[in-house]
Design a protein that fits this description.
The chain is of the alpha/beta class. Helix content is 29%, strand content 30%.
Length: 270
């Protein structure tokens, strides 16, 4: 797998906070996109010799047409949001590094949690939840109209907090999750949202409910204090990331390695 070029074929505003871009990817097969519902791809903007990128959910994939659809969340002065807002047919980006993290046990009931940044992945996950699986979506939005973006599905309740988190106020997702997850149950939790909320939820599941790492996939999609955090991480990051690499080398698996890495970050004040 290498870097492949994609060209904009369509761009449209879905709502106040979501903008859709359809990309033509002639070498789509080279990306080996995961089939998981939260499949994502690195999108790199700018000059080929100095690209800057972010990871985005593949909202739709059409292998026959060699096209993918990416929905961008419009939230302030973000790299991807700024690009998407001005994207026009024939504009190009580079794609690389596909990934996915949504790995529920087939028999588990699912608690699916997201702020706006996680909505594209959440929407696709909801569409793919089997009809016989018990699931609830716990979300945080800026405006009730944001909920229109999510696919409605019989049997999947949407629990929403309106006007919280998303860089405006403190997140309440951690509190909402505690009311939906309990010890001793065969549940699964997926989270996509702000990194601080991700850590709080991960700690609750592991330390309070004593869930195993196979019972959740918690992703920090963005960070509220990113500029300050990036500066501090630049000083200690390589040594801390070695914790993750060493855990993998010891055969602990990606989930447990991620847990040990996050604990090392927390102990370092990051």
């Amino acid at each position: 797998m290498g870097f492949v070029t994609a060209a904009v074929v369509d761009a449209l505003r879905l709502s106040e906070h979501f903008h859709r871009v359809v990309l033509q990817v002639p070498e789509l097969g080279r990306l080996n996109l995961p089939t998981s519902a939260d499949a994502a791809i690195g999108v790199y903007f700018g000059a080929p010799d100095s690209p800057a990128g972010r990871t985005y959910t593949v909202r739709h994939c059409d292998p026959a047409q060699c096209q993918i659809t990416v929905d961008f969340v419009l939230h302030g002065d973000g790299l991807g949001a700024n690009w998407a807002h001005l994207a026009a047919p024939a504009d190009t980006v580079t794609l690389a590094y596909p990934g996915s993290w949504y790995r529920p046990h087939p028999d588990a009931s699912q608690v699916l949690v997201a702020d706006l940044a996680g909505f594209p992945a959440l929407a696709r996950i909801i569409e793919n939840v089997p009809p016989d699986v018990d699931a609830v979506a716990v979300v945080e939005v800026l405006d009730r109209n944001d909920l229109d973006y999510l696919t409605t599905k019989p049997g999947i309740e949407v629990v929403a907090s309106v006007g919280t988190g998303n860089g405006v106020t403190d997140s309440v997702l951690g509190h909402l999750v505690t009311t939906r997850c309990a010890p001793g149950r065969r549940d699964y939790c997926w989270f996509g949202g702000e990194a601080g909320a991700a850590r709080a939820i991960r700690k609750h599941l592991r330390r309070e409910l004593h869930w195993s790492v196979e019972q959740f996939d918690i992703l920090g999609y963005w960070r509220l204090d990113s500029e300050d955090w990036d500066k501090r991480y630049a000083e200690a990051g390589p040594q801390l990331f070695a914790v993750y690499q060493n855990a993998l080398a010891q055969g602990k698996g990606e989930r447990l390695a991620s847990e040990e890495y996050d604990l090392a970050l927390e102990q370092a004040g990051l």
